[in-house]
# Entry
Amino acid sequence: MAARPPGGGESSEPEAIEFGIAALNARLEESDVSFPATGAEVAHALDDTAVPYDVKGRTIELTEALDQIQQSEFDNETEFLDALYPVFDEARRQGGGFLGELRDALPF
# Structure
């Protein structure tokens, strides 16, 4: 998942903001993790385990996300990301709840 930030910057092409599986995938590519691996091994291989799950920058700890799935061992990166996708999607959908949505809608 990725979204473009609002305009107003000096460049005509804003950079994309990565969150959810896209952000986690980018971190995996920068790490020295190799598969097959356990979720704990993957989390240990990452420098920063707080992964943003929405465009607002709200994060979920990778270990917390891993606790929400049944699988603990992964044969490859795709299997790892596929297993975690529903967790990030659910966190994004729940977001800040009704009050968070109301605050986001207000202009101040």
Residues 95 and 105 are 14 Å apart (CA to CA).
